[in-house]
Amino acid sequence: MNKSHKHIVIIGNGISGVTCARYIRKNDEGVSITIVSGETEHFFSRTALMYIYMGHMKYEHTKPYEDWFWEKNRLDLVKGWVEKVDFGNKKLNFQNGKTLDYDVLILATGSKPNKFGWPGQDSIGVQGLYSYQDLESMEKHTQNINRAVIVGGGLIGIEMAEMLKSRDIPVTFLVREKNFWDNILPFEESQMINRHIKEHHIDLRLETELHEIIPDESGRVKAISTKTGEVIVCQFVGLTAGVSPNVDFLKNNPVEENEPSLQIQRGILVNAYFETNIPDIYAIGDCAEFQEALASDRKNIEQVWYTGRMHGETLAHNLTHQKSVSYQPGIWFNSAKFLDIEYQTYGHVPPFWDEYIGSFYWEHQGGKACLRILYQKSDMAIVGVNAFGWRLRHEFFDKAITDGWKLEKVMVNLNKANFNPEFFEAFHRDVLKKYNQETGKQLKVGKTSFLKKLIGSRA
Ligand SMILES: Cc1cc2nc3c(=O)[nH]c(=O)nc-3n(C[C@H](O)[C@H](O)[C@H](O)COP(=O)(O)OP(=O)(O)OC[C@H]3O[C@@H](n4cnc5c(N)ncnc54)[C@H](O)[C@@H]3O)c2cc1C
């Protein structure tokens, strides 16, 4: 084990910063580690914010570690907002006037909700949903209101709609696209979500853009207008048109002569080792932007929970071992929930695909579950999977895509991918029936023991 007496400072106590801190401590007992955050004293699960508002959880329940964990592992916590990083003198300057020296600095500062310069966007009762402070503000500004408008159809927009509906607040949902999230989802999947949103009595307005937010004399939102001139009276506006790296405080530092300045494009530019252009400064998680594409189907900024964890773990390894390893992103995976419909995606499923890609699509007759598998027509190897309303096993598809399983092999073994076979066995039979109809084949469900051998006992 490496022993060092360096002081590593991490700005950000989210999943990437905390994972990095934990693994550094695991590998190096000597190093001193400080985690800085302006948001909350302790790490909490950002993905669970909605459940606090809906009354399913209390903030305390969203903390993955008990409060004693940090002291026991000698992870010093500093609560405060960093205003400026003095890269020349290796010092953080806090809003409250305090300073903190570092030897190594890890930037894990996350994202911030996008605002596109809409008139009235800074009115009272207009906000995104990202931080714990956003949750508090939403709590405050949604008391006794008659209508909320949400602008931007993505994963956070639909979460906000569900939160508001849980309190019986009528919601109008403005979505610029033709169908819900159709810049990410293929046509049938986004149609399914359109229907589902409407079934929940959410006033979904497709192909509708925000023009202006109209405040009253006290500065509080009283209405919005759309680009077609419609005025919608509301007392709360949720801005959920995506997020961007939270890096503003690192830009335009008044740079003193010869002081290095951090290279930032949309995010903080890093290589595959999470190194920035300045020695001893690293960036991980949502705020990092890879200089070079990781793979043809991967974005240069990764804004999901599990990749933040992988970034943190990889960097911790490199800071505590002689031999560095580059980030290996593996097969893309994402999961979310559209109201009652769970969503999982594996590998590459774009909204449109090239000629050489084939698509198998099955939809349950109830219209609330579907499965899409994309494959290469040349050798039938699968490249991507979308599953809605049906939870499937991550390790199954991770292996199937990595190992280039052919479509038929996936088809006959789908029962082993089923997370809740007792509920969804019929889905698999139905999928196979459709596949057999389309291909004229007579495939049957495979044997469990075969798959256990292939993907291990957890299958
Ligand atoms: C409502 C919501 C739901 C989501 N649901 C999912 C989901 O279901 N699945 C999924 O994969 N992902 C989801 N995400 C995305 C996921 O939460 C993020 O990708 C992840 O939390 C990013 O982790 P991070 O460590 O990079 O940054 P963050 O978790 O954003 O942490 C950054 C930290 O940096 C601190 N910080 C920033 N600037 C400063 C400063 N100047 N001074 C001091 N401290 C600073 C902040 O206090 C903050 O705590 C969701 C996000 C939101 C907002």
Question: Which ions, cofactors or small ligands are bound in this entry?
Answer: flavin-adenine dinucleotide
The total tally of domains equals 3
Largest sheet: 5 strands, parallel
Going by helix content, strand content and strand pairing, the class is alpha/beta
CATH architecture of the largest domain: 3-Layer(bba) Sandwich
**What's the shape?**
globular
Name of the top-level CATH class of the largest domain = Alpha Beta
Poorly predicted segments? 455-459
Distance between the termini: 35 Å
β-strand percent reads 15-25%
| Global mean pLDDT | 93
Total beta strand runs: 25
How many helices in DSSP terms? 11
Placed side by side, the strands forming the largest sheet appear as: 3-2-1-7-19
CATH superfamily of the largest domain: FAD/NAD(P)-binding domain
Radius of gyration: 24 Å
Percent helix range: 25-40%
CATH topology of the largest domain: FAD/NAD(P)-binding domain
Question: In a few lines, what is going on in this structure?
Answer:
26% of the residues lie in helices and 25% in strands.
Walkthrough of the structure:
The protein is an alpha/beta fold. The model is unreliable at 455-459 (pLDDT under 50). The strands form 7 sheets. Strands 3-2-1-7-19 form a 5-stranded parallel β-sheet. A 5-stranded parallel β-sheet has the order 9-16-10-11-12, with helices on one face. The two termini are 35 Å apart. The radius of gyration is 24 Å and the shape is globular. It contains 11 helices and 25 strands. Strand 24 and strand 25 (382-388) form a beta hairpin. It folds into 3 domains: 7-112 and 245-320, 3-Layer(bba) Sandwich (FAD/NAD(P)-binding domain); 126-241, 3-Layer(bba) Sandwich (FAD/NAD(P)-binding domain), CATH 3.50.50; 333-455, 2-Layer Sandwich (Enolase-like, domain 1). It binds flavin-adenine dinucleotide (FAD). Flavin-adenine dinucleotide is lined by residues 11-17, 36-39, 46-47, 49, 81-82, 108-111, 129-130, 156, 159, 246, 249, 285-286, 303-306, 308, 336. Flavin-adenine dinucleotide (FAD) binds at residues 11-17, 36-39, 46-47, 49, 81-82, 108-111, 129-130, 156, 159, 246, 249, 285-286, 303-306, 308, 336.
